[in-house]
Amino acid sequence: MNKLLIVDDEIEICEFLKSFFEDRDFKVAVANDGARALQQMALCQPEVVLLDIQMPGMDGLQALKKIKELYPKVKVIMVTAVETQEKIEEAMRLGADNYITKPLSLEYLEKDVQDKIDILAKGS
Amino acid sequence: MSSHVRTPKTVLKKILVGLVLFSLGALAAYLLPFLIPSSGISNPWVHHPLLPILVMTLIFVAAYKNTERLIKKFLEKYFFHKKTFAQMTLMDLTGDLAVNLDLQEISNLVVNTFGEVLQLKTVALLVPDTLQSHFEVASAFGWSISASKKIRLASDTQLLKKIHQTGPHVLMRGPVLQSLSWQEANALAHDLDSLQAAWVIPLFVKGELVGLLAFGALVPDTVFDQGDFHFFREFAAAIAPCVHNALVVKRLRQLNFELQDSQSQWVQKTKLNAIEKLAAGIAHEIHNPLAIISGKAQVLLMQKGSKQLEPNVQDALNTIVKQTRRAADITRKLLMYSQGSRGPQEWIALEKVLDETLSLLAYQASMDKIEIVRNLDPELPLFFANRQEIREIFLNLLLNAVEAVGSEGKIVVELKYLRAEELIEIVCSDTGKGIPAEHLDKVFNPFYTTRHEAVGLGLFVTKQIVHRYGGSIRVESQVGVGSMFILQMPYAAEGARSLGMGTERSGVQVLGAGQK
Q1: Which residue has the higher pLDDT, B33 or B336?
Q2: What angle, rounded to 10 degrees, do the helices at B387-405 and B311-339 form?
């Protein structure tokens, strides 16, 4: 079973994403900020992370940096509301694998997550 | 001074001297026989016919100098009254000037009084311009206004150089030209000719040259004597501080004005900045709830393994997804609208950007039965600009036009290349309700709007963009007939935007293309 970590400070967003991906046979973990995201990384060992940029405490960019340091193989898709060009560029520079903007198209998101998993499967 | 010059005054003096000497001689010759004692001595010389002539000659020689001096004194006395009157008038004037701080009024008073009292042909008062690099005419007497406005004396002209050498002395054309080499004399003569002046009185305040009073005489050989020049120096010393003060006041006013101007610009900038931040904040805060609404609807729509949704429910969910996307687009546009996006410049085809913008409005326009016509110059060149900014120009113009027309009407967009002027011209005309004449000058003001729901930034932002490209925008309108916005941007001015934009400020950029 593929494992996915959803990181967003909006609980409702985490919830509908969780139900959506669980419906598609993912094992889904949820975190509401960067620090908890790192805990969940250790616990669940997900293949793909959906990471919000703007969060209280440790924000998405800091979390992204840590994740890529500790788990270089994990694919990270940034989820943004409205972000500055620099932040998105920064995220891509830090190793983010893609970014999508809210409101999300779940169809597109599902496809993208599946792509990342396929890439991982090919690599291993 | 210049005694060799024959003026009516000197001729009169000579005649008077001649008359007086002749009468003295005649009197002496007549009295001679009575003066010589005739007691018995018969002197044949006494009755010689040449004796009176000899006596007269002797008296002429002996009394010439004294008589001339006397006559001169007498004449001076006669002319003295006139001079005192002139001098008093001018000194009175300096009293009036001391309480005046308006440069224009001061200079008008000086040149007019000076010119009239001394019966001069031309008088001009020159003062340093605001940058202090040139002297220009503040006021002139006996000049045509247009001619006086053309005079600009650079600080390195021969006249000003010479004045800095000679100090507060009155500069006299004749003597000073003789004292110079021919090149310098030529240059100086040129300066004096341009000022139509034979004399220049410099106005110094504590070693600083604050003005020049240049004047020329009505009669070519008018002369002033040493006393006159002494008076001119006194007069100059009296009016110089007044001119100086007025200049200082003028500069202060100017600085104050500039300060206010930059302050209002700053206020405007911070205002816009605040709107930007507000728009960014709103967009951010709205996108999260929108994501939740749309997400939940999509979860339901894309549920697997459960029973098929009722068609009406499915419809509703689809509408929710579609409408949330629309709402997100609006906030995104709001953000772009407030930012005036900052991005790279490239060679763009204006007609393509126009088409992109038109496609955004096509639906609304067709709903409102508005016909939009494009009128393209077949030889329209590529334009070096930021695509987003040009799109914004078109969008703002078209949104305004659509709004003005309301329903049923026509909008014409023309793109022209004015080859001779090297200008790109964008003309957007509509058959809308028009703008009342009293509002025409306000339409480009920020927050000016006739719509309740609008922010009133569209044309303001458009104007800002056009100005960034070194262009201009104006509007012609007639109530009930329609409006026409005319934009012109220099085609070749690639460097016109090097200031103010580009790398200096890298603001918020919205990514609309995140999901492909």
Answers
A1: B33
A2: 110
Nearest-CA residue of chain A relative to B323?
A103
Which residues in chain B touch residue A86, judged by CB atoms under 8 angstroms apart? 506
What are B463's two structure tokens? 């104007």
Q: For B314, phi and psi rounded to 5 degrees? A: -60, -40
**How far is it, in rounded angstroms, from Cα B301 to Cα B314?**
7
What's the token pair of residue B472? 């201009």
SS3 B205: strand
B299–A102 CB contact, under 8 Å: no
Q: Please, are residues B461 and B396 in contact by the beta-carbon 8 Å criterion?
A: yes
Share in percent of chain B as helix, strand, coil (round to 5) = 55, 15, 25
Dihedrals φ, ψ of B212, to 5°?
-135, 135
> Rounded to whole angstroms, how far apart are CA atoms B291 and A81?
9
Q: Are B146 and B162 in contact (CB under 8 A)?
A: no
Q: Say what the ipTM of the complex is.
A: 0.89
Asked if A65 and A93 touch (Cβ cutoff 8 Å), the reply is: no
Distance from CA of B357 to the nearest CA of A (A): 22
Structure tokens at B71: 């006559």
> With a CB-CB cutoff of 8 Å, which residues 81-120 of chain A face chain B?
81-86, 88, 99-108, 110
The shortest C-alpha distance from B497 to chain A (Å) reads: 22
What gap in Å lies between CA B423 and CA B400, rounded to an integer?
24
Write out pLDDT tens, residues A56-102.
Answer: 888 899 999 999 999 999 999 998 887 666 677 788 889 999 888 88
CA distance A69 to chain B (A): 25
CA-CA distances (angstroms) from residue A41 to A28, A72, A119, B246, B300?
A: 11, 12, 20, 77, 29
Torsion of CA A50, A54, A56, A58, to 10 degrees: 60
- Which residues from A are below 8 Å from B287, CB to CB? 81-82, 101-103
* pLDDT at position B163: 87
Closest by Cα among B60, B382, B98 to B242 = B98
B127 class by beta-carbon count within 10 Å (0-12 exposed, 13-18 middle, 19+ buried): buried
Question: How, if at all, do strands B423-430 and B409-418 pair?
Answer: antiparallel
pLDDT, tens digit (0-9, with 9 covering 90-100), for B165-221: 888 888 888 888 888 888 888 888 888 888 888 889 999 988 888 899 998 876 665
Tell me how far apart the alpha carbons of residues B242 and B106 are, in angstroms, rounded to a whole number: 8
Q: How far is CA B297 from CA A23, B320, B485, in A?
A: 14, 7, 45
Dump strand ranges (E) for B115-225: 120-128, 134-141, 152-154, 171-172, 199-205, 208-217
A124 has a chain B CB within 8 A of its CB: no
| DSSP 8-state class, residue B380 | P
In the block, tokens 């001015």 appear at B493
Helix axes B226-301, A11-23, angle to 10 degrees: 40
Q: Which of B255, B253, B243 is nearest to B127 (CA)?
A: B243
Q: How confident is the model at residue B339 (pLDDT cuts 50, 70, 90)?
A: low
Indicate yes or no: pTM above 0.80. Answer: no
Q: SS3 sequence, B263-294?
A: HHHHHHHHHHHHHHHHHHHHHHHHHHHHHHHH
